[in-house]
Amino acid sequence: MLLRGLACVLLLAAVVVLVLRGVPVHTSLYDLLPSGGGAATQSLDRMARASSRQVNVLIKGDSEQNALAQAQRILEKLPSGVTPLTNQNMLAKVAESLHPYRFQLLSSRHRAALSAGDDEALREEALTNLYSFVPLSLYPADVDPYGFVTAFLMENPLVRQNGLEPRDGVLMGMRDGVHYAYLPLMLPESAADSLDELQAIMSQLHELCSCEGILLAGTPVHTWRASTSSQSAMTVLSIVSSVMVVCLFLWVFSSLRGVLFMVLTLTASGIMALGVSVLVFGEVHILALVFGCSLVGISTDYVVHYLVDHHNSDDAGLSPPLKKSLLFGLLTSVLGYASFYAAGVELLGQIATLSVSGLGSAMLLIFAFYPLLFRRHLPVRLSKEAVALGNRISTWRMHPMLPWGVAALMLLVAVLRLPVSDDLRSFYRPEADLLAAEKEMATLNGMEQGMLTLVVRGAHAEEILQRQELLGTLLQQAGVEHFTSVASLIPSAARQKADFEAVRQLVGKYQDEVPVEMPQTWPGALLPGALLEADSPFASLCSLWEPGAGLVLVPGEFRSAVETLPDFPWLEKADRFADLQGQIQSWREQLMLLLVLVGVVVLLLLSLHFGPRHALCMCGPVLAGILTVFGGLAMLGIPLTLFHVLACYLVLGLGCDYAIFRAVNDRANPLTAMAVFLSFLTSWAMFGVLAFTRFSVTQDMGVAICLGLTVAYVLSPAARGAAAQRCTASCEPMK
Amino acid sequence: MKTLLIFLVSCVGMVAASMPEFPVNRVNNYPGLKAWFKEAAHTVAAFEMERTMPSGRVLKSRGTFEFRRGEGMMWRTEHPVRNAMVITPETLLVYDARGRELRRNSLKGAAAARYTGLFMNEMKPEDMKQLERAFTITSRADTQAACLVVGMKARHASNDLRWLLFVVRRGMLEHVYYESARQGMTHVIFSKVRLSEKLPTEPFAVTK
């Protein structure tokens, strides 16, 4: 009664929490990345976050006109909320914002001419600008006759990068004889948080760009393709899993009542787990939701054991051996998942909360409601074939130390040969056409060999800009081209002031011929914040700039030139992928260490209750299962990843259950053998099928579960009846 | 009616330096335009240019103009500065008085200059189509084909070149008017026009 009341209260509380707060599911992968590493890492993450909404469209055409026409057709029909990053007003808008600073922003050509005292050439240029039929100036020729700001912008390496030139709002270029138009598009901010919205927009864009010769690339394209295909794959797998489980239940129980109760239990425990997680964390990440809810699937084992235990029995209560097995099964799983908290990673904490509370809730529901629910539906009838199979399986014999031998062998293989991969990029394997599009886009952007990031630190913005200018000079001397930094666009205040003084002298010298209204006093420097506003065409540079640090991006092909740079205390070469690889390696190692610790704790607990000898018998199969994951991967030449290790926790939870049930019950009990077999098959149907997906994360988990679970099950007879006598001595006799 | 009025104003009143408005209704007389282009394969003229900047400042210059169909054009300014600007279908080049190249710009980036480049070709249908994507084009000749007025008006408000009008009388280019968002109104008057159907073989003479 007490348990029922508690279960009802918890379920109600979870429903209230979910109704009041909703289920805020977070989908951004960038929030999962470690935030350590200081300003450089934060800047890189901000840059990555900004690019997570950018779609790059590349239109190839046999002629310039065709490519431009296609690009304009796409621009006219863009889905709502999608904005082009380039437009016809782009330069005019920038020119307007630079107007107050038109006498202090100089191109390197003009600065060199002024430094060299070549005033006559500048005068001639001014007169040409004033009196030519087509003045090439972003301002009225009498406002900026020398064309300083026009040259500053039009000759800027950032604007002229990679031979792309803006035309009618489209960036046009030519490479290897092929004309192309390049359209960088920005998705609305809401698309970053809503997968449905992103999918809807990307579907429209894909339809719009479905003509031959048009390539789509960028993070949203990957997200859309991966999520769409994973959703369809998961739908197929879910159907296959459900059909397999239903067939199994029909074959074993000749009824679907068990399936119905199992679904009800999983749903209710899922709601309770979600309620607890939302209450604790405020929101749940999609990955935690998927992993956590999958782990709650272990509770199907409990339902299977309850059903099988009530074969030909009218008593709906839980027998003491069943209670003990279930509680020990729960304890080992909870210990495993609770250890995630020790890793100190919020995602793992969310997974732990979801799975621990879900498993606990499922157990609570079974203890509280099953005796009541099944009172009128007993006895459970196992089919003759199932009983016959159970009898057959129950006769399997195995030396209790065989699993330990297998474990030792697998450990040896793993130690000798297991490769490891913690590279974030290896976790994602995009489709070939998407890879080709990305490669082509990278070639176009001069980033085919990746990108190097240099972090320039300084006490304030001016110091960073001055240092970036110095670095820029050194990079140019080293032959580096197409590098990007805020200082490429915004000179330091010191440089602006020096340029202003030089220009004032020039203007004064030719005031009669080239009259210009120039302020007599220094109007102040153009500061980065003014030009990097959110709606500026240069807003993408924002991610390269923040108080205390500025980033300089260098094409990967200049790696060796960058290595020759002097060592400045304010200059740091950042490698975000290496940082992340280190972080993921640290998580993996922590999880492996925790797995060992959990194994030792489980062994101790079982030793305390059943004695060391029996505990060793019970732990052997699961240890062999887990070590077979490592050894098997080593033999197959598959590198060990974080997700293999995560799957080992599932193997620990399920494998311990098999051994405990076989150990606690009578050695020749065919029902226990059948229940464990059925449990193994349902787990295989639910988790093992993941091995057949194309996504590295689920595939890695599936492969690990297939290997580990199979070995843990096959070796579970080694534990059969190990603790039966001790259990029957301490429990009531079985009916 | 308005078009006719503007046409008359264009033909009669343009000699006076008053700036015309761009014709509202579009009238096409491409054959007349093409016929003039065919005759004016090589045109050399003196020009006087008057530009009224948005600030109200007036800039006056004079020099010589040379047009070679399919090759390009040259504006050689003689006063108040001596320099030359050569526009080919692909490039814009600026030279100083001594013929030194001061600047070289690809015309791919400059819409107005690129369209000028298109005009310099033989006015193929595809060139006209491209021009019509950016401009509303109108051309009209009087009954005796003595006066031809050709106008182009930008379709997009963001285009710096708002409109351009040129007047050809008896096969001779007389006036060019254009309005630029940044550079204001420009009026060029041509005189001493010499036409030839044969293109010279030597390059543009950027120095006198």
Written account of the structure:
- The complex is a heterodimer of chains A (735) and B (208).
- In chain A, helix 11 (257-281) packs antiparallel against helix 13 (299-309) and helix 14 runs antiparallel to helix 23 (576-610).
- In chain A, strand 10 and strand 11 form a beta hairpin.
- Chain A has helices at 2-21, 38-51, 64-76, 90-98, 108-115, 119-131, 148-154, 189-193, 195-208, 219-253, 257-281, 286-296, 299-309, 320-338, 346-373, 384-394, 402-417, 432-444, 461-477, 493-509, 528-531, 559-563, 576-610, 612-636, 642-664, 670-687, 696-714, 724-730, and strands at residues 25-26, 54-61, 83-84, 165-167, 170-175, 178-186, 214-217, 284-285, 451-457, 545-546, 549-555, 571-574.
- In chain A, the strands form three sheets. In chain A, strands 2, 3, 4, 5, 6 and 7 form a six-stranded antiparallel beta sheet that branches.
- Among the domains of chain A are: 1-31 and 254-381, no CATH class; 396-437 and 576-735, Multidrug efflux transporter AcrB transmembrane domain (Multidrug efflux transporter AcrB transmembrane fold).
- The longest helix of chain A has 35 residues, at 219-253.
- Residues 729-735 of chain A have low confidence and may be disordered.
- Chain A is built from 28 helices and twelve strands.
- Chain B starts with a helix and ends in a 12-residue tail after the last strand.
- Chain B is globular and about 45 Å long.
- Chain B is of the alpha+beta class and 208 residues long.
- At the A-B interface, helix 3, helix 6 and strand 4 of A face strand 4, strand 5, strand 6, helix 3 and helix 4 of B.
